[in-house]
């Protein structure tokens, strides 16, 4: 896994709010809304991603519904790439491919337009955080199914104690995160 080694990492981590015991006891929710409310922090966040990818060949940003859109759209603009949403089931109006993945309690499904990418296009997958890795892996699998090449899975936050980044790497995908939190932080 790659974590940003810029001064932005500690700054951005310091702006993220931890809400203890939400949505249930024992869960530490990492709230990124302070990053969007603070214009300097939001700019540094997007800059951290731009600096990571500005010299790489990337054809599109595939951003995961919904918080991935927050960073995916400005990043696509800055990198001069296309923006493709990976949506929750039932939200896309055209022919789609879907991938179901396991949650702690049940399953969820993400979808991608069948014509989202051309074969061989280089795609950066973006979301707000990696917890168990299910959503990111499902999105990466969809991209491969339509013929895209996943360059990397990029995220603001990695929660390595939950095993998602290990699962994503075990599936053969590289990861970039701006910062990480242990469960005790």
From TrEMBL:
Protein name from the UniProt record: Adenine phosphoribosyltransferase
Gene: apt
Family assignment from sequence similarity: Belongs to the purine/pyrimidine phosphoribosyltransferase family.
Organism the protein comes from: Natronospirillum operosum
Molecular function terms from GO: adenine binding; adenine phosphoribosyltransferase activity; AMP binding
Pfam families: Pribosyltran
EC number per UniProt: 2.4.2.7
Protein's GO biological process: adenine salvage; AMP salvage; purine ribonucleoside salvage
Superkingdom to which the source organism belongs: Bacteria
């Amino acid at each position: 896994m790659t974590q940003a080694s810029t001064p932005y990492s500690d700054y951005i981590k310091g702006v993220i709010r931890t809400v203890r015991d939400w949505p249930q006891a024992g869960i530490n929710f990492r709230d990124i809304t302070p990053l969007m409310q603070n214009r300097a922090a939001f700019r540094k966040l997007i800059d951290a991603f731009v600096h990571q990818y500005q010299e790489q060949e990337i054809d599109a940003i595939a951003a995961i519904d919904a918080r991935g859109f927050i960073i995916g759209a400005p990043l696509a603009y800055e990198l001069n790439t296309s923006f493709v949403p990976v949506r929750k089931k039932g939200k896309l109006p055209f022919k789609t491919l879907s991938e179901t993945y396991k949650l702690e309690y049940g399953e969820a499904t993400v979808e991608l337009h069948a014509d989202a990418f051309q074969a061989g296009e280089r795609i950066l997958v973006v979301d707000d955080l990696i917890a168990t890795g299910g959503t990111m892996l499902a999105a990466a699998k969809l991209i491969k199914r339509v013929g895209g090449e996943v360059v990397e899975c990029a995220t603001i936050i990695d929660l390595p104690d939950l095993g998602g980044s290990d699962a994503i790497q075990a599936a053969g995908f590289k990861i970039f995160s701006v910062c990480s939190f242990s469960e005790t932080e």
